[in-house]
Structure to design on (652 residues):
C-alpha cells in the first residue's frame, strides 16, 4: 500500500547489440528510459546518429488515412472519454506488417479526398448559381440579352418591398420605362426594368436613391433551361460523390490493418527515440533509466541472452527524490481508486500514497450522498454491465469499478437508512418487514442524526490525514515537526470531542476535564512553538497567534462534511417527490398507469444521474481539500516503462 520502490539502472553493452537490447526492453515493458544527463557516467560519450524522418512520415500518412476512413465506418458503442483499443491477434499482426500495401490504400484515399473536395466545391458553385436563377425563372428573355443594348437596356434588379411604390412612382416620371415584377419573396422584390438607353443616368440615380441591387448574369440561355441544366449537373456531381463515398466505404475493411501498421511504425519510432537517449563510444553503448525494485530479477532474466551486457544498479539519491518516477502499488480492492488519485496528481516518490486511506471514505461519502438502497442497486448493476459489455480503456474501467464498489456501499447505507427508491421499509409489504431491523435512522425525519454522523466521519477523516502527516515526518526523521506541528492538532480535535461529549453527558464527567486539558495543551503548544525558527519574540508571538487562527479553518473543514447531509437529503426528498407525483398521475383515467411508469423511470433515473454526478464531485472535493490538504503535496511523474504502445490496437 505504497509508492513502489525504484532503482536507477544503467545498461552497458557492445554497440552492435543496441537495437536488439532496445527491442527486448520493449517486450519486457519493465524499464523507463531516461535521457543521459550531464552528471551521468555516460555524459562523456557521444549520441548516436538516428534517422526518423521516414517513420514519422509513414505514421502521419497512416494516421490521416485512418481518420479519413473513420467517417465512412459504422460506429460501435463505447465511452469516448475512455476509448478502448482494438484487439489484434499476433498472427494477423505479423502477416499485415509484412504483406499489407498500406501506401496503395493511402494513395487511393488521398485521391478520393482530393476528388471529394473538388466535387464539393463544384457542387457549391453550381448550387449557388441555381439558387440565384430560381428567383429569375420567370424572365422572358435569354440571359445573354440582359444588360445594355444599342437603344434599349434590360436590367434585372432587387428592391425591398416597402420601396416598391417609390420605385414605381419614380419610374412613372420617365416615359420610356417598363417595369415587370417577376417574383415577390419575403421582403424582397425581383423585377426586370426595360428602359431607353438615353434615360440611363436617371435610372441609375433612382437605383442609387432606393438602394436597388442590380443583378448581372454570366449564364447564357433562358433561366428555365439553365435551371434544368444546372440540376442535371448537380445530380451528376452528387452521383460521383456517392460513388467515391461507396468506394471509400469499401476500404473501411482495411482500416484495422492501417491501425496496425500505424502502431507498428509508432513502436519502431519509439525504439529509434530510445536509441537517441543512449550514448556510445567506438565499441560500447550506455542506456540508463528507472526500474521497480521488485522487477530487477525479471529484467536480468529477460536480458540474460546478452552475455556481454553489464547491468549497474543503484538506489535513488536524496536529491533525486522529486524526479524519481512514481508507480502506485495497491491491493486489488484499492486499485480502482487510483483513478481518483490521478485526478488530483500522483504523489512525489518520497511521499505517502493516499489511495488506500482515501478509498474507503470515497465509497462511503458517495454512498451517503445517494442514501437509497435501490439507487445503489442501479448504480452497481449499471457499472457492472458497462464493465462486461462495453469496450472501455483502462482508466475508464477503474472509474466504473469505483462506481460499482460505491453502489454496493450505497446498498448498505440504504439498508441502515431504510430507503429503497424513495420508499421507506415501513411502507413495504409485510413479508419484507424483517428489513426494518436493519434501520438505524431515517434521514428525512432525523436530519440531525444524519448531520452528527457526517461530522463524526469527517472528524475521523481529518484525524487520519493529520496522522499520515505525523507518520511521514517520523519515517523521514523529522521528529520535532511531528511533535510540535501536527500532534497538537490531534490533541485539539480529540480534546474538543471529549469536552463536548462530556458536557452533553454522553461520557463520564472526567472526560470534559481531560478534553479541556488536551485542547488547551494542543493550543498552547502551537502558540509557543509555531515560531520556533525565529529568535525575535514579536515574530514568534505573531506566528503563534496566526497558527491558533488555524482553528477557524479546522472548524470550517469539519463543517464541510455537512454537504453529505445536504446531498443525502436532496436525493431522498427528490425520490419521495417522484413517487408522490407518480401516484397522483396513476389516478388519471386510461393513461394513468402508463404515465406513472414513465414518471417513475424518468424521475428516478434522472435523480440517480444528477446526484451521482454531484455526489462524485463533492466527494472528490472532500478528499482533495479537507483530506489531502492535511498531508499530501502531489506533483509526482508517472512511471512509464518502455513498452509496446499505440493509439489504436493491442495484441491479444
Amino acid at each position: 500500500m505504497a509508492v513502489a520502490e525504484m532503482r536507477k539502472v544503467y545498461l552497458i553493452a557492445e554497440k552492435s547489440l543496441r537495437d536488439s537490447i532496445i527491442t527486448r526492453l520493449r517486450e519486457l515493458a519493465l524499464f523507463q528510459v531516461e535521457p543521459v544527463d550531464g552528471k551521468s557516467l555516460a555524459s562523456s560519450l557521444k549520441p548516436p546518429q538516428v534517422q526518423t524522418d521516414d517513420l514519422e512520415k509513414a505514421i502521419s500518412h497512416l494516421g490521416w488515412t485512418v481518420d479519413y476512413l473513420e467517417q465512412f465506418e459504422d460506429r460501435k458503442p463505447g465511452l469516448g472519454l475512455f476509448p478502448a483499443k482494438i484487439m489484434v491477434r499476433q498472427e494477423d499482426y505479423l502477416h499485415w506488417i509484412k504483406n499489407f500495401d498500406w501506401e496503395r490504400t493511402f494513395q487511393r484515399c488521398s485521391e478520393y479526398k482530393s476528388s471529394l473536395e473538388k466535387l464539393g466545391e463544384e457542387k457549391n458553385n453550381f448550387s449557388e448559381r441555381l439558387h440565384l436563377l430560381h428567383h429569375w425563372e420567370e424572365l422572358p428573355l435569354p440571359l445573354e440579352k440582359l444588360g445594355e443594348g444599342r437603344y434599349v437596356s434590360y436590367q434585372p434588379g432587387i428592391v425591398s418591398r416597402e420601396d416598391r411604390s417609390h420605385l414605381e412612382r419614380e419610374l412613372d416620371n420617365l416615359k420610356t420605362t417598363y417595369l415587370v415584377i417577376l417574383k415577390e419573396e419575403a421582403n424582397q422584390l425581383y423585377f426586370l426594368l426595360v428602359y431607353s438607353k438615353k434615360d440611363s443616368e436617371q435610372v441609375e440615380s433612382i437605383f442609387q436613391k432606393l438602394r436597388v441591387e442590380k443583378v448581372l448574369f454570366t449564364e447564357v440561355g433562358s433561366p428555365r433551361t439553365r435551371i434544368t441544366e444546372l440540376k442535371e449537373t448537380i445530380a451528376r456531381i452528387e452521383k460521383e460523390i456517392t460513388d467515391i463515398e461507396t468506394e471509400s466505404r469499401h476500404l473501411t475493411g482495411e482500416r484495422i490493418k492501417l491501425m496496425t501498421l500505424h502502431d507498428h511504425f509508432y513502436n519502431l519510432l519509439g525504439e529509434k527515440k530510445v536509441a537517441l537517449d543512449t550514448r556510445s563510444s567506438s565499441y560500447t553503448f550506455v542506456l540508463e533509466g528507472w526500474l521497480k525494485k521488485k522487477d530487477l530479477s525479471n529484467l536480468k532474466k529477460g536480458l540474460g541472452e546478452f552475455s556481454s551486457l553489464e547491468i549497474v544498479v543503484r538506489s535513488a539519491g536524496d536529491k533525486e527524490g522529486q524526479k524519481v518516477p512514481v508507480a502506485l502499488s495497491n491491493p486489488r480492492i484499492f486499485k480502482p481508486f487510483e483513478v481518483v488519485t490521478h485526478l488530483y496528481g500522483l504523489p512525489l516518490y518520497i511521499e505517502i500514497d493516499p489511495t488506500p486511506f482515501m478509498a474507503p471514505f470515497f465509497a462511503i461519502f458517495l454512498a451517503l450522498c445517494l442514501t437509497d438502497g435501490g439507487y445503489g442497486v442501479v448504480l452497481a448493476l449499471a457499472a457492472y454491465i458497462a464493465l462486461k459489455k462495453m469496450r472501455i480503456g483502462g482508466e475508464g474501467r477503474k472509474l466504473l469499478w469505483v462506481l460499482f464498489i460505491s453502489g454496493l456501499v450505497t446498498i448498505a447505507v440504504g439498508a441502515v437508512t431504510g430507503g429503497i427508491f424513495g420508499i421507506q421499509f415501513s411502507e413495504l409489504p409485510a413479508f419484507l418487514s424483517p428489513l426494518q431491523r436493519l434501520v438505524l435512522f431515517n434521514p428525512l425525519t432525523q436530519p440531525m442524526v444524519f448531520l452528527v454522523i457526517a461530522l463524526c466521519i469527517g472528524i475521523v477523516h481529518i484525524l487520519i490525514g493529520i496522522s499520515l502527516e505525523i507518520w511521514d515526518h517520523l519515517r523521514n526523521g523529522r521528529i520535532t515537526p511531528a511533535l510540535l506541528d501536527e500532534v497538537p492538532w490531534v490533541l485539539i480535535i480529540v480534546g474538543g470531542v471529549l469536552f463536548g461529549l462530556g458536557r452533553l453527558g454522553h461520557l463520564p464527567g472526567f472526560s470534559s476535564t481531560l478534553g479541556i486539558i488536551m485542547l488547551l495543551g494542543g493550543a498552547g503548544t502551537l502558540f509557543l512553538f509555531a515560531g520556533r525558527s525565529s529568535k525575535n519574540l514579536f515574530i514568534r508571538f505573531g506566528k503563534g497567534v496566526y497558527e491558533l487562527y488555524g482553528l477557524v479553518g479546522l472548524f470550517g473543514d469539519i463543517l464541510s462534511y455537512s454537504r453529505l447531509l445536504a446531498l443525502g437529503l436532496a436525493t431522498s426528498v427528490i425520490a419521495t417527490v417522484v413517487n408522490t407525483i407518480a401516484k397522483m398521475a396513476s389516478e388519471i383515467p386510461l393513461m394513468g398507469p402508463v404515465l406513472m411508469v414513465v414518471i417513475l423511470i424518468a424521475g428516478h433515473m434522472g435523480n440517480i444521474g444528477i446526484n451521482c454526478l454531484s455526489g462524485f464531485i463533492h466527494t472528490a472535493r472532500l478528499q482533495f481539500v479537507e483530506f489531502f490538504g492535511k498531508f499530501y503535496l502531489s506533483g509526482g511523474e508517472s512511471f512509464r516503462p518502455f513498452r509496446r504502445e499505440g493509439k489504436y490496437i493491442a495484441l491479444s
